[in-house]
Amino acid sequence: MNRLFKLVSHFGLIILTAMIVVGPVYAERLKDLATIQGVRSNQLIGYGLVVGLEGTGDQTTQTPFTLQTTISMLQSMGITLPPGTNMMMQLKNIAAVMVTTTLPPFAQIGQTLDVTVSSMANAKSIKGGTLLMTPLKGADGQNYAIAQGNLVVAGAGASANGSSTTINQLSVGRISAGATVERVIPNNLTQLSTISLELKDSDFSTASLVAKEINRSFGQDIAFAQDGRVIHVRPNNADGNRVAFLAALESINVNPGKGAAKVILNARTGSIVLNQTVTLENCAVAHGNLSVVIGTAPVVSQPNAFASGRTVESKVSQISINQDPGNVIQLGAGTSLSDVVRGLNAIGATPQDLLAILQAIKAAGSLRADLEII
């Protein structure tokens, strides 16, 4: 379990460090570690019109596609405009929009989906508008859903003394249950002879442990790891109830392998998070008037004259951080990154100082962890 050090503030600098304390390992459900291959969502998109706006729609003289779409919609309903009237139309109550949603796995015909409607031209607001029937297509170009309904836009406006203020974005809205599924995506999961699990994070240790735990839980060798991400499982339920088998498979508890050490540094605030104890090798870094020296000192342990033991020589890790000749901080044994961060914070290092020093330590090969800058 992780335990965060207390937040230290010095000269306006806030540093957040994490100290990892060795504790009991807790198992996680397999459904939290892996997904079933083929069980996935699909993105849908469509182009349509929003009508009923209060003069805040597209300026059709600058957005000809809005006018063209409106004319095509009218013609599809049997309305033919007189020749020469196209250029005279000023449709301030209409806006061209893109409609997006996500089709979940195993979605059935008639199921409703929430949709997001976004203006794609120069409409000032689509608040209060109504989306006309819009087909939603998948990546294969097929229509999988139809969207229509009244928009709800999260935003508010106020005006006083001739000035106006708008809060939030008024060109994007949502329609709850605004789309109806009209086509399903075939899924042959129940007919597959082998089910493939995909770990959310590739790790050979975790993949091996997952396969081992599945085999132990079902009492026979039905799972094997293909690589650090994919585990193949052969269902062994005699009754053929694949849903019950998958439910039992997802409920298996697995102790995942220990991940790689990672250090995450926020370059703006100087916050540092460690996912485990990170130790440093010998190195020396000079940065401006700061210097960091990480090394080892010999320590001799000699028994007294009447003891039966023998003399042992070992090395103890030490860290020295100084800002000037009169300001030297000597940290005790245990060369850990958290000690370095606390020492630098104590003498008022800035976030940019931390970033430069950690990058230098990483480049020198002394930091045995992944350094991620956000």
UniProtKB/TrEMBL annotation:
Q: Which UniProt keywords apply?
A: Bacterial flagellum, Cell projection, Cilium, Flagellum, Signal
Give one GO molecular function term.
structural molecule activity
Example GO CC term: the record gives:
bacterial-type flagellum basal body, distal rod, P ring
Provide the primary localization.
Answer: other
Q: Which GO terms describe its biological process?
A: bacterial-type flagellum-dependent cell motility
**Oligomer status and interactors:** The basal body constitutes a major portion of the flagellar organelle and consists of four rings (L,P,S, and M) mounted on a central rod.
Matching HAMAP family, A to Z? FlgI
Describe the task this protein carries out: Assembles around the rod to form the L-ring and probably protects the motor/basal body from shearing forces during rotation.
Q: What is this protein called?
A: Flagellar P-ring protein
Gene name, per UniProt, is flgI
